[in-house]
Amino acid sequence: MKPKIYITRKLPDxxxxxxxxxxxxxxxxxxxxxxPREILEKEIQxxxxxxCLLTESIDKPLLNRGTRLKVVSNMAVGYNNxxxxxxxxxxxxxxxxxxxxxxxxADLTFALLMATARRLVEASDYLRAGDxxxxxxxQLTGQDIYGATLGIFGLGxxxxxxxxxxxxxxxxILYHNRxxxxxxxxxxxxxxxxxxRLLRESDFICVLMPFTHETKNYIGAAELSLxxxxxxxxxxxxxxxxxxxxxxxxxKNREIWGAGIDVFEEEPVSTEHPLLSLPNVVALPHIGSASxxxxxxxxxxxxxxxxxxxxxxxxxxxxx
Length: 320
Ligand code: DGY
Prior knowledge:
By secondary structure, the chain is of the alpha/beta class. Helix content is about 35%, strand content about 15%. It has a 7-stranded parallel sheet, sandwiched between helices.
């Protein structure tokens, strides 16, 4: 008998076809709407595998309903939406999709850094609104990127890929990580810095660490107050790592210069969110990995992880 799986969002046909070769597949067939919790609660009772996205909270009460559940495959590298400890306790494998999205997410991170530094969104809006009356010396001036100091919080794969891009801009690169990465320091010509030094010395600070209990509000009022008044903060990791209220005040009072934000504590973010009222914020709807190729690779990798787990193998990207 084929194992049964539930997929929480419409996936590309090629992925569904692959899964159907091995499994009995049921899928929430909508692209732009997450599966309602009550449907997920019902569906999980009857499946061996769950293919989910970061939009679903796979918490203990939900896992408790999955009495025959063996594998949860998340189509994301981050898995803070899953209670991994609860899954482990129940013998459920959890997998993610690292690697395939590294370069695409590093591209977006650097693009967001540049867009914020050079005020691209504000400048485009200015032009479209008909406000462009003449060229003028101080009009829409931003911050230089070339030769500036970049501070990276979290030197995983994406952090290293970002450092490679920054080297092309002759940036001085500092990083802070749980552990030092001596090989990367040598290969990428980057320097380890303690948290305070990184905050004080960087012109651009990129947040690329995983979201855990330890990193919740890792950047708060105290950290923001150490940053340069000309600094730009970029977050393409998870919203909860930066205290949004503190960030709002720091930006509003011009304690720091700007922020590029791809991720929010609550997603989708409300259009009434105070951060969106600020001209020195470039805000994006969590599109770090959103290239056509990469999203396809992620969805296929999540499928392979799920199949490996269901077929009794150790999935390539197991996290527990
Ligand atoms: C992830 O994979 O964790 C990103 O946030 C979405 O690609």
